[in-house]
Every structure is written in structure tokens, then in C-alpha cells.
Amino acid sequence: MISLGEVLTALYGAYRLARLDAGGLGFFDITDQGFWRSFFAAVVVAPLYVILLLIRYSNFPEPIPLFRFIALEAIAYVIAWVAFPLLMASLARMLERDEFYIRYIVAYNWAAVLQNFLYIPIAILAAVGVLSITLSNTLGLLALALIVVYTWFITRTALEVAAGTAAGIVGLDFLLNVFINVFTEAAIK
What we know:
Oligomer: single chain
Distance between the termini: 38 Å
Low-confidence stretches: none
Number of helices: 7
Largest sheet: none
Number of domains: 1
Mean pLDDT: 96
Shape: globular
Order of helices and strands: HHHHHHH
Helix content: over 70%
């Protein structure tokens, strides 16, 4: 089991990386156990994500069965947390970055907590109508831009790859998430 201290230390490392401080990498447990425990980040994000899902569900013009909605979203959530690390296992080998794979995924997973804590509140405020469409779109795009730069920095730093390679990996991650979201939305409707 993961301790609160390890979670807080990892989140501090993610915060340092968000400040574009490569020293943040030193705060992660990059052992095999640390790799598996980094997926606890999904548990940290889950409560906020569930709130967003429940708000979205309540806004559906034609309700679908709640169990179907929750089941599809839960499956998509797990796939979203697992698909990219699986893809990166092969890609890291192809790029001859195997030795940095665990460090990268650990940093990537913990950074996702900060990314979601930035983006999900904007989505919640938009879903409940607190933000206008224009403001929510503007804030959403700004958050997305910050997340892309943050993820690019982590990719470049943790994998020790060139800027263009890091950009390609971030683009691949983005496309994979779009693909998962499109299929989930199609299955829900």
C-alpha cells in the first residue's frame, strides 16, 4: 500500500516539474514498486472526476440508465490510465529509452493529478453553468495549453529526448485520449 507521505512527496515532485524544475524528478520512487504505486494517482483524481460525471449525467436531455453510464465511464477511466503507459513501453524501447521508462511513467502519472486538478474544476463550473461558454472555452484552452507544455517538459526531461520527439509523444498521448473520449461518448449515446 502507498503511504500518505509517498503521495505528498510525489505530488511535490509533480509541482516542481510544473514549475519547469527538472529537480522534481528526484522526488519520485522510480523502483518497480514505485511504478505500480504511481497508478494510485488515478484514485487521487477519481473523487473529483466522479463529481464531474454526476453533473454531466444530470445534464443529459434524455437520461440513459445510470449503471450503463457509470460502467462505460469507469471502463474508459481505467483504459485512459493504462493505454498510454502500455503504448509507451513499446515506444520507449523503439526510441532506446527503456532505462528511463519507469521514471517517465511515474512522473507522468503523478503529474496527471495536478493536470486534472487544474482542468476538472473548469469543466465542473462550465457544466453547472457558472461559467459562460466563452469563458469556459477560454479557460479550458488555457488549461490545455499549460497541460501540453507541462507534459512536454516531463516527457523531454524524464525520457531525455529531443524537443521534437517529446512533442511527438505528447501529440500521440493527446490523440489517444481523444480516441478514448470519442468512443466513450459514442457508446453512451
